[in-house]
């Protein structure tokens, strides 16, 4: 029994709950933080995935109807792990197995994943917690190639007074998002990239979080120059524990606002059989 | 003092108000209706837009790291007006002008719309209303090529007791969604497609809705065999009134549930300069 | 009198061969038959392959240099078995094996064929022979779903006096190309499509031809309504005999000209690891 | 009896005539030089054009027919100015005009060029001449950012004894092709790239060549660090003189062979309305 319910029960206003609707609260006014990065040509992305491309096959004036109307449209080419995105469980396998022991080779027959694909990820509307690591550590941003430790995570939780647990979405800010405008710096191939390693991932899994996100391209601690030779957090979260990963999040504005707890909303495109989806997640709080 | 607070005050639980946060309500349990259609090869879509294509450039086993880990990924090609999607204002022009009198030719220079593009559409978290037209008319579904009239819209509102107004997102169910599994029937080139015409669009605009959606590919009444020769609702909503349009919605489950009012959430991909975005909108209510 | 002729006169023929160069003959004048179909939106193609798409990401005026210069460019999306194209051996497997007994699963690891791919097909400059089946049969065009028999092939050879043999490229005209402008008719899903069946393919293989082509989408006899349930010619030519197949050829003009023997030139794009390539083959003869 | 045969007859070598056909010469044996580069992920290409991408949407085993047959196929995404390619006249405009004074804005309405597009470029079978500039200059390769002068071109012609003129295709080797395996070096953004400038282009135009090619990405002299700020050769050849340009040619093997004159064959894909085409040109000589 959670504290809210308890309060209501003891005061005997059970019926009240129905009139205190979610919709009423939203209509009173909410603040919506946009946690997605803009998608555009030249944005930082992993070289392992198809480049984001946008073009207008039809522009205004190309075909004008008799009544003076005209439509423009787009063609988009992209990987599902470019820009802000969520990883489906099928994205990663270990020793030939997907999460749940599914055989990776078998599941991908047909050119799409009938199990473990992003179509199995229901839209997320849940508690979200931002763990602001630089704030907890008293720095502006984590250093390149810095491994966010379990102690750091716990320090942030304590400083923020925001325990995390079953079903929560935990977003871990390293401060790396400040480099977004500098493509090479954000990719960080030479410098390495800060993030949680195996220990942090295990810690998150033990808390049974619904999903975990970061403000870097990969939800990983990447040593300088090491590239993607080792991706332990992906293995632990996706394969061993069935926890989705959200990457390339925009967390700077949310962090600056002081908000640490929120309604987290993420609605992946229902791309049947795909290993991920571009997304634009939201943190929603009352005004 | 609004009704919610009043209810609480009269029952003597003033303190509760602060803890009755949006987050609390979400954590008590919400029902999330998925209003998006799955994206897959062969799904019904307009022939005017690039075909949805998905492939796995990398499959498990293609590149296995020394530690036994392997990743699969995707390449997606699509138009932004295929599957469930939202139209940006720049999608349509009339007599060479976009909404606000912007010159359509000028704005598209560079191959993307710096004004009127989908990047200008902030994520939507607002009141949503489903207008169930077949229910109001006492039919299972609107007939092909049926024009949803203002009288129909008002009849639905009265039957449902759900007025619509400033800032609402209005989703108009025609029942056409039942044809989703039959590609040709859903496209309806020969049969025509039900929807609002100019009068319905004007009525929506007069109510200052935030956006309007439908369970058909085009938010329009399409006469049999007429194709897209005339798209008055697009002109009225997008060009004349700056109201975004949402198409190819999945409304059957929501309609069957009896829910008519809800928190509507739609977070378009931030595709800089594009004329629309694929989306997976949500209707959220308390359990 | 040019130098070539002079050489012939003075030298009395033996060495002549070297001075009677290919280049000289070309410069005296050649007729070049274009055997490729135009690639454009909406052209007939197999639904099994990615749709041909062309767009101009950059148009003139999008970026004008200080000196008044401007460039336009293209983005193309296509399958390699759309439009006029050549099949690499890796395109088809039988019982898990590619031509030469290579394991199909093994060869495609990495997402491209390191053996059997189109990159292994050297540009073809060889003798080409057009077998005009309708002419031999005294009809305008083969009927839909007509199987071109061995007797038909031999009848054409006899009528034309053009034996075919080792290293030749044999193009088999069915007359189906007349339907090119009618998309559905050319695809022929309902009607079936004329072409060689197993017997014709075996006959070609026995003659050790370099490649075999047709004026239909698939180099096969397709019964009405049967689709691609059986593709014996592909199996026999590609898998069993290592003979490339050329499809969707434009043969009407060549047939009408009366030319039956020619220099055949086909230069596949060197798409490393791909199963085929779009091409524009040529039949070249002296004027 | 055509003029060639007549000439031969009068010189007394009648028998020779029938065997001296183009086809006969080809069948006696030709050497075919492949002047195209392989297309593959990561190859050097201009950042101004869509990245070459190849994937196998269907692999063997994805759909196995009842008879044990299976097909694999490809999806290709590319710009038409990547890899070895030919520029259509519509690729470049000057002061809003295409070659022939066509209005660039008007011609591109509809999203494709109905005039000046690559579909207007007939397959080329003509005399080709390799001008080996480093050989003429006595160096291994032209220095980065070296401008190939008119004097250089004339020196090569004199050294090679290969005048160039009306209708010839002239391929200018700078030796830059040796850098192909080193992506950054070949692109040469920092170093600059050798090539002809305005003077060389005018010289070629004055000779009325059919097309001109180079072993670099752009048929231009690019000063170090200057990028594509000025592209005079494109303006002169494409816009002012209607001469197609061929880029990213592979000329090292041809140069090493000593062949300087040859039958040049280039068959652009018939991409209706496009500004260029990927190609695999050939230099053909007798063995």
Strand order, biggest sheet of chain A? 1-15-13-7-9-11-12-5-14
Identify the overall geometry of chain A.
Answer: globular
Rg of chain A to the nearest angstrom?
21 Å
DSSP helical segment count of chain A: 10
Q: Tell me the quaternary state.
A: homotetramer
Instruction: Assign the CATH architecture of chain A.
Output: 3-Layer(bba) Sandwich
Q: Helix amount of chain A, in percent?
A: 10-25%
CATH H level, superfamily name of chain A:
Putative cyclase
Most extensive contact: A-B, 106 and 104 residues
Low-confidence stretches of chain A: 1-19
CATH topology of chain A: Glucose Oxidase, domain 1
Mean pLDDT value of chain A: 93
Counting structural domains of chain A, the number is 1
Task: Give the CATH class of chain A.
Answer: Alpha Beta
Compressed to H and E, one letter per element, the order of chain A equals: HHHEEEEEEHEHEHEHEHEHEHEEE
Helix vs. strand class of chain A: alpha/beta
Strand content of chain A: 15-25%
Alpha carbon gap, first and last residue of chain A? 27 Å
Number of strands of chain A: 15
What distinguishing features does this structure have?
homotetramer; 287 residues; alpha/beta; Glucose Oxidase, domain 1; two-stranded antiparallel sheet; disordered N terminus
Description:
- The structure is a homotetramer of 287-residue chains.
- With 287 residues, chain A is of the alpha/beta class.
- Chain A contains 10 helices and 15 strands.
- Chain A starts with a helix and ends with a strand.
- Strand 4 of chain C pairs antiparallel with strand 4 of chain D, so a sheet runs across the interface.
